[in-house]
Amino acid sequence: MKTVDEAELCFPQLLNTSCRKTMLSPSVSLVIHLTLSSISLLTVFSNLLVIISIYHFKRLHSPTNILLLSLAVSDCLVGFLISFQIVLIDGCWYLGDIMCALYVVLDYAITAASIGTMVLISVDRYVAICYPLHYSSKVTTERVKMCVSLCWMIAFLCHSLLLKDSLQKPGRYNSCFGECVVVLDYVGGIVDLLISFIGPVAAILILYVRVFVVAVSQARAMQTHLAAVSLQGSVKITAKKSEIKAAVILGVVVVVFLICTCPYFCVILMAEDAAVNASSVTFLLFYFNSTLNPLIYALFYPWFRKSVKLILTLQILKSDSSDTIVM
């Protein structure tokens, strides 16, 4: 029979080197398990709906939606990463040092890819609102696909290099068995903050301030001339309104993203060292953003609601369903 001390250890057989568990009551542990499991399933399922919608329906293959597809892929992967947080509920990491290193690298890379995609979304809206006559020639589907691919490759390459010590020698920073800790050196931490937070957030804020200044001026101009426009002018105004509406919706996505992301990076900025414990609660707030994005799409995008209805009723299995008009 186990002693009290053994019951509190992650690995009782390693009495002197094992980490201690975070002791939770059965009811609290059950609630946390159910909550995280629900969030994980909801995140994966809802983002899969976004991915299937944009990938399947040809009418949705626009540059802006390609960016939303990239964001949905990162959000879906985050849903899978939440399952690792479920493993860590009792404060113990049971999957080994190699999996710990891979998990943290994936977390960093997916975070960077998400933020990079947010920057691309901001650039897309900036060009659409500030240079509408040049948008179709400057922002093409092929160019956006190339930018998204580069964003993901750079995110994985940079963080593989920044965390190469942990990848080469997994578990080197653990103080006991059952811990999952990765450490960035001082220079690596500064570089990560610059490329994953400070630089992208500054770019997003600058671009969106410019977008909304121009959008407000365009909205006022439309109201002023609304009564004296021809049919052709009405079409142009409707197009402008559509672009402004898209900018507002994606602005909501960006604001929610920043609200959920900033606390994590603020904790890193204020930390005494660059150690990252995989059980950090600040990860959870960032993860929760991935659950919110599809809900924002469902609230604001009629095409997403229509696509979901077609997917859930299995209408997409029809041979000509990809040509369905959902916009």
Features:
single chain; 327 residues; mainly alpha; Rhopdopsin 7-helix transmembrane proteins; two-stranded antiparallel sheet; 2 strands; 73% helix; 2% strand
Give an overview of the whole structure:
It is globular and about 75 Å long. Helix 4 packs across helix 5 and helix 4 runs parallel beside helix 8 (186-225). The chain has helices at residues 4-7, 26-56, 63-87, 97-130, 132-138, 141-162, 164-168, 186-225, 231-270, 281-300, 302-312; strands spanning 181-183, 275-277. The chain is mainly alpha-helical and 327 residues long. It has a single domain (29-323), classed as Rhodopsin 7-helix transmembrane proteins (Rhopdopsin 7-helix transmembrane proteins, Up-down Bundle), CATH 1.20.1070. Strands 1-2 form a two-stranded antiparallel ribbon.
Report a brief summary of the structure.
With 327 residues, this protein is mainly α. It has eleven helices and two strands.
Shape by Cα distribution:
globular
Number of strands: 2
| Separation, N- and C-terminal Cα atoms | 65 Å
- Give the neighbour order of strands across the main sheet: 1-2
Number of helices: 11
Subcellular location: Cell membrane
GO molecular function: trace-amine receptor activity
Pfam families: 7tm_1 (PF00001)
Organism: Xiphophorus maculatus (Southern platyfish)
